[in-house]
Amino acid sequence: MPNNEYQAKPLPFNKELIGISKKTIEIHHDKLYAGYVAKLNEINKKLEAARDNEELKAAANQSYSDLRALRIGETFSVNGVYLHEAYFNVIGGDGMPNGALKEAIEAKWGTMEKFISIFSATGMSVRGWVVLAYDANVNEMKIYGADSHNQGGVWGCIPIIVLDVYEHAYFIDYGSDRKKYIVDFWKNLDWSAAGAIYEKIMKMNS
Ligand code: FE
Q1: Is residue 107's pLDDT more than 60?
Q2: Chain centroid to CA 3: how far?
Q3: Distance between Cα 129 and ligand 1 center (Å)
Q4: How many domains would you assign to the chain?
Q5: How far does residue 81's CA lie from ligand 1's centre (Å)?
Q6: Minimal CB count within 10 Å: which of 1, 21, 94, 133?
């Protein structure tokens, strides 16, 4: 049988971040992110077996059932994996906006400062994630906020800049000062990595 297990991706950067410690990143990537990958693989295996499990399918119920638990766990885990990969992908840079993405943000939000300020404030207004996404439903970039991995996501979106605002992302280094963590997030942003996603999307659209 082919091994179709999802493989955890290594950290895409190897540098000291501003403000966010190595310890935080190690726990975040090696324990938490890796944990979502492991759960995703466990759930995938059980969902595969569920296809032939007539008893499990017959017992499906929206209040509680084994299939419900698997389906809820599936979207929580898979989004936990994708969102963390997107977050790690855009930190580890020099914080200097550049290229077509910078221009497109300025065209939509007026100035980079205005964009950063509403994105950052969104990070203070939700419990989980802030995402600058390309929303293919309306063919434009949108900022979306989410309380959880499987809440607040919008289908048909490709994440470009992703910020994790769960406490585990900053509490060791900043205590409860999430605002300061978000200020430092921008200093660490890898605009080239984010720009590469944007350019890929533009190419797909052309
Ligand atoms: Fe996280």
Answers
A1: yes
A2: 25
A3: 9
A4: 2
A5: 9
A6: 1
